[in-house]
Design a protein that fits this description.
15 helices; Rossmann fold; globular; 5-stranded parallel sheet; single chain; 38% helix; binds nicotinamide-adenine-dinucleotide
Amino acid sequence: MATAKLRNVLYKGFVVELEYSKISVIGLGYIGLPTAATLASRGVDVVGVDVNESAVNAISKGKAHFSEPDLDMLVQSAVSTKKLRAQTTPEEADAFIIAVPTPFLDDHSGDLSYIQAAGRAIAKVLKPGNLVILESTSPVGTTQKLCEWIAQERPDLRLPDTHLDTPDIHMAYCPERILPGRMVFELVENDRIIGGMTERCTDKATALYEIFVRGELHRTNAPTAELVKIMENAYRDVNIAFANEISTVCDALNLNAWEAISLANRHPRVNILNPGPGVGGHCIAIDPWFLISHLPEKTRLMRMARKVNDAKPNEVLDKVRHQIDRFRKPIVACLGLTYKPDVDDLRESPALHIVEVLAKESNAELLVVEPNIAQLPATLTNYERVKKIKLDEALERADIIVVLVGHKKFAKIDNRKIHESVVIDTIGLWQVNTYK
Ligand SMILES: NC(=O)c1ccc[n+]([C@@H]2O[C@H](COP(=O)([O-])OP(=O)(O)OC[C@H]3O[C@@H](n4cnc5c(N)ncnc54)[C@H](O)[C@@H]3O)[C@@H](O)[C@H]2O)c1
């Protein structure tokens, strides 16, 4: 078995020995790019690979192609010191980290085509002694499948699923848990789960994360690590569903959900989350399905939570429709489009969905306030009645104000500006739920 060569690098004034002097990160999105730039900042030569040419071009100029605090600085420094290069095809390296998308298919099972494509692409340049880590959130069993896809491409290599003791390639599943808005910090500080296909694979992957992680590294096997990641997001989804159901109950009883929840949370062992307009983003709204579609009979609670959360945007829409009907020429301010506060990410956003439906079906003028994006997304640009404007102007002109996302900029407003409007506060930001 070949061993990866060790190389000394100077890091923060200390000479450290790196088992992996060259690491390739496949997929330079929200997860891959911060990982690549952080590794580069630790003295590793990093080759970032992405099929998206415009992302590669931006990174090659030292720029992140999406907005994330501190990331631009990190990428700029990694590229200018030549520790990070970006390109569209893989080349040889000591280790490969795969961080490509895992959406779901029509039947809600995981779409593994991106992982398969990435696996087949790196298979061409793999050599004995290499480590391959999958970071994409994946259904249980995906790392095993990745071994099989690589073996099909490279029958000359021994993979750890079939050659437990003497593999040429080590493989592990190491999920990512970083929070958009805090990615650069959490990448280093969070604990990580390291799930090797064998004990030796876990050793090898642990050595890689020791390069930059300050949190604890927890060892397990690949399928457990795959399950843990899905469990974490399903747990969040179920808890949010409970909060959302409470808000629906409060609406039916004409009570203030936020007051009720904050009082219940005074119990020492109760901690109910904040309700909202639904669940969005790339993870919580998707990942539980990887388990539900795999084991439908064993995941009734998770399925119900998904249904409760998916129903929430329609409940908000019904409230808005009801208010729109009261005005002859309604003007509706929609505060926020992103899937969570203070990011520019619109993926699976319930706020965006709500505004898209209103644009399509109502004759209301829609004033969209979204400070985190430069222009409206393509799905809204064709409507003359939909405009992106500043907060103050929207509050001044609107008959109905729908608060959809808790951006910091929305938190403090002059109450005098809204006291004549109907406010539909889906997140309890202003603690006013006044349907006039
Ligand atoms: N974004 C998050 O907050 C977060 C958190 C935890 C886990 N995850 C998981 O991490 C994975 C990646 O998520 P992301 O948010 O970084 O996605 P992303 O869409 O931001 O980035 C993925 C990148 O992979 C590239 N890509 C696709 N196919 C490729 C291929 N064959 N070769 C090379 N590049 C390819 C895409 O062009 C894109 O730039 C997903 O499984 C996601 O569920 C994301």
